[in-house]
Amino acid sequence: MAEWNRDTPWRQGHLLGEDAIEALGLRHAAAPEQTLFIVATHDCDLAQAPEGEPVIEVVAGRPVADKDGNCTHAKNARKLNVEFGGAAVFWAEFEATTKVGIDKLALNEFAPRPEAQLTPENLAVFQMWLASRYRRSAFPDEFERRLSAKDFKLNEKIAKAVKPHGELIVGVFFDVDEGAELTREGADDTYTLDITILHSADPDFEAAEKAAEAAAKAIEKAFRDKLFDPTKKWQHIELRSCELVSESVLTYQQFKQLKRWRLEHISLGAEPPQAVLAE
């Protein structure tokens, strides 16, 4: 077995080659013949001696022919669709629940896959996705119940409005009751909701802006059809605004005040309760 070298060629976001996957006995459970494994461990931890940090975390994945727009840009904390560039250009899908640890010295015998790499922008997306499992926004139980009630299914309608636009929409952010944690009771005791749709700036600003406009109109219509038109008065949730903002102009102050709505969102009412941090 090779000795550890602090100048390891391995970096976060590198793909394991087929030789390493085969030798280490790693396979994607659902697609063993299309197995990918990506390094999740941070560069600083990769450089540490194996005596102190002996394990490298990797995540299983597989190539996909068609990306899922709701799984790009770390919009889904459980599943990521991300593009690799280089000599081999393809989209891949990774699932957070498939993360495993492998021996650092064992991986040290192999080199990263050379023909496929994440761009710096997509590496940042991968890092945000890894962090999202531990840094997700939480909304009040009652708000979640109203949003996902079978008579409204507004959570599904938001996801449906965003999905076709994939890479053009970076994320959907909620401001519920201006950040105050209030207890609401009854249909007339409405939550106030302001939605921000964050769209990409590059490579085609105009196309991204149009995509965000289309998503905003679909979301506004869904809320009005379900929660306003039947009584001509807002019930359950009042959608005060649904605005689009380019990622190039969203300020850090705005970002801190908003909570990202994950497209697979689970509230604090899950069993068992899942305490998560606001983004």
Tell me what you see in this structure:
The protein has about 280 residues and is an alpha+beta fold. It folds into two domains: about 120 residues, no CATH class; about 120 residues, Alpha-Beta Plaits, CATH 3.30.70. The strands form two sheets. It has a four-stranded antiparallel sheet. A four-stranded mixed sheet has the order 7-6-5-8. The C terminus is likely disordered.
Outline of the structure:
The protein is an alpha+beta fold and 279 residues long. 26% of the residues lie in helices and 23% in strands.
Question: What would CATH call the class of the largest domain?
Answer: Alpha Beta
Number of domains: 2
Gross CATH architecture of the largest domain: 2-Layer Sandwich
Question: Number of helix segments?
Answer: 8
Alpha-beta classification = alpha+beta
* Strand portion: 15-25%
CATH topology of the largest domain: Alpha-Beta Plaits
Spans with pLDDT under 50 lasting ≥5 residues?
A: 265-279
CA-CA gap between termini? 43 Å
Compute the gyration radius: what is it? 21 Å
Strand order of the largest sheet: 1-2-4-3
Could you tell me the mean pLDDT? 87
Characterize the largest beta sheet: strand count, sense, and whether it forms a barrel. Answer: 4 strands, antiparallel
Number of strands: 8
